[in-house]
């Protein structure tokens, strides 16, 4: 390496892959960064460069200096042979820059430690690797059989899984050509096995629980935190909710929360009402799906979070980006690096997730089509989160519905016939704040004829704009449910 090559490397200051130290007086800090480079994306460490001014100073290098460097490198585990370069500096004479370059060890390798502690690189900072991350990487490096999702889920059987969810997902997979048509005739046991949710001896995996378990009380990490904050910080809650359940339950809860608190514009097209969120629903659903799928499950205190502010929306999950990706390169075309491959494969086959790292691209495309800025990705030692900017700052109005931008005119219900008003009120109360699927609505209304119920309640209230579908782009979606619109809320208040 030459001085000119060094100058070319350091011109942008310290980065995720570059660390500079003035002298080997900071040797221990420097080798910590080497450990972090090994565990992250690789990088360069230089001694003899001022990190503030980027001036190449060099330093005196003695035999003792070389021995000290070798001694500290020997504290890296697993043992590694790192070449150290000494580059002469013209001024002052006899001084040298010390350069150490390392390649990333790879996400599937045993994590490196220095002085018995693991380190990672977060942007230009070296930090101790979180315990959850260390344990996860250690398990991955040993064998696939140690992965949480593929471990046996003790105490559950096929009967504990939500068969409707399984068959609904399979039907979508068949419709998209991702599963054979014969799957529609298979038993639930066969479907679970073909989705690779059982071990070789037929026991259910943790992945089956994460996706389809009905009672998830033994898994406190199956948690979605949802909050609407007043203003642009977390000082004041307007709405604070928690949902527990499997993947699909949490996805539905999260989408319902978005529809509750984000502005909606609507218009009548033909005989139907089309509604659009201020941030495209497909982008939010993709981001939430990614968060629920790629999170760390083995930590019982982990969770996924949704935070809505006046100016932005944040979706976060416990975990970290693969070392092959950064917060910038994730926006580019990239291979898929699923945190939980078994869960991801099931979601792909049931059409809830796409392979080959295309999800982020679809999110950005949806935002661009809606004339919104591209979402921003960030991470720290414990979380990854994506931020969607709202077009304009949307202060929360405590005296009105959060659907404050709907373009549908609200008609008064005071002149409605009393019997009709009573029936409408009962139905809207059953739909409620959280919404409900068709089966639940029929049970709560004590009605059994599906066709009559749809004709008497669902279709007219959709047409009137009192309710809307959670999956409007797919009316026959197996997980379809209905929620109150702004018009429905106002009607309920007036009845």
Number of helices: 15
Content-based structural category: alpha+beta
Oligomeric category = single chain
> CATH first level of the largest domain: which class?
Alpha Beta
**What is the name of the CATH architecture of the largest domain?**
2-Layer Sandwich
Outline type: elongated
Low-confidence stretches: 398-414
Biggest sheet descriptor = 6 strands, mixed
**Number of structural units classed as domains:** 4
Strand order of the largest sheet: 10-9-13-14-16-15
Q: Report the β-strand fraction as a percent range.
A: 15-25%
How many E-type strands? 19
Overall average pLDDT:
84
N-to-C terminal Cα separation, in Å? 79 Å
The whole-angstrom Rg is 28 Å
CATH topology of the largest domain: Heat Shock Protein 90
**Helicity range of the residues?**
25-40%
Question: Overview of this structure, please?
Answer:
This protein is an alpha+beta fold. The protein has four domains: 127 residues, 2-Layer Sandwich (Methyltransferase, Cobalt-precorrin-4 Transmethylase, Domain 2); 63 residues, no CATH class; 167 residues, Heat Shock Protein 90; 77 residues, Arc Repressor Mutant, subunit A (Orthogonal Bundle). The chain contains 15 helices and 19 strands. β1, α2 and β2 form a beta-alpha-beta unit. α8 runs antiparallel to α9 and α9 runs antiparallel to α11. The longest helix is centred in the middle third of the chain and has 15 residues. The protein is elongated, with a radius of gyration of 28 Å. It starts with a helix and ends with a helix.
């Amino acid at each position: 390496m030459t001085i000119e090559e060094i100058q070319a490397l350091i011109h942008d200051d310290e980065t995720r892959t570059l660390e500079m130290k003035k002298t080997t007086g900071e040797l221990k800090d420097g080798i910590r960064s080497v450990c972090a480079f090994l565990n992250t994306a690789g990088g360069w460490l230089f001694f003899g460069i001022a990190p503030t001014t980027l001036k190449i100073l060099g330093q005196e290098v003695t035999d003792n200096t070389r021995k000290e460097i070798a001694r500290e490198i020997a504290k890296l585990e697993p043992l590694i042979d790192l070449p150290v370069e000494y580059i002469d500096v013209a001024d002052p004479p006899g001084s040298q820059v010390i350069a150490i370059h390392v390649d990333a060890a790879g996400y599937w390798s045993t994590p490196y430690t220095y002085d018995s502690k693991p380190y990672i690189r977060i942007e230009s900072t070296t930090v101790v690797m979180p315990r959850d991350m260390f344990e996860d990487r250690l398990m991955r490096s040993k064998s696939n059989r140690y992965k949480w999702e593929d471990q046996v889920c003790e105490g559950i059987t096929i009967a504990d899984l939500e068969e409707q969810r399984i068959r609904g997902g399979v039907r979508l997979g068949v419709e998209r050509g991702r599963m054979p048509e014969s799957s529609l005739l298979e038993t639930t046991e066969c479907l679970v096995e073909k989705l690779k949710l059982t071990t070789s001896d037929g026991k259910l995996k943790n992945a089956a629980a994460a996706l389809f378990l009905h009672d998830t009380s033994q898994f406190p990490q199956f948690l979605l935190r949802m909050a609407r904050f007043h203003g642009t910080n977390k000082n004041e809650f307007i709405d604070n909710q928690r949902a527990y359940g499997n993947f699909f339950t949490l996805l539905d809860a999260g989408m319902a929360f978005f529809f509750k608190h984000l502005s909606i514009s609507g218009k009548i097209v033909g005989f139907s009402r089309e509604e659009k969120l201020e941030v495209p629903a497909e982008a939010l659903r993709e981001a939430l799906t990614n968060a629920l799928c790629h999170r760390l499950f083995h930590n019982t205190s982990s969770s996924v979070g949704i935070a809505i502010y006046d100016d932005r929306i944040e979706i976060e999950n416990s975990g970290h980006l693969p070392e092959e990706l950064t917060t910038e390169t994730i926006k580019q075309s990239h291979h898929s690096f699923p945190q939980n491959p078994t869960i991801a494969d099931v979601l792909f086959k049931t059409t809830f997730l796409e392979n080959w790292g295309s999800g982020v691209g679809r999110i950005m495309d949806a935002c661009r089509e809606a004339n919104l800025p591209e979402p921003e990705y960030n991470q720290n030692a414990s979380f990854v989160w994506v931020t969607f900017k709202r077009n304009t700052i949307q202060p929360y109005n405590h005296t009105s519905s959060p659907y404050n931008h709907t373009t549908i005119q609200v008609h008064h219900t005071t002149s409605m016939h009393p019997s009709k008003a009573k029936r409408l009120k009962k139905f809207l109360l059953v739909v409620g704040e959280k919404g409900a699927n068709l089966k639940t609505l029929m049970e709560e209304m004590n009605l059994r004829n599906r066709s009559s119920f749809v004709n008497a309640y669902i279709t007219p209230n959709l047409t009137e704009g009192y309710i809307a579908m959670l999956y409007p782009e797919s009316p026959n979606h197996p997980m379809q449910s209905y929620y109150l619109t702004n018009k429905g809320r106002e009607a309920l208040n007036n009845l």
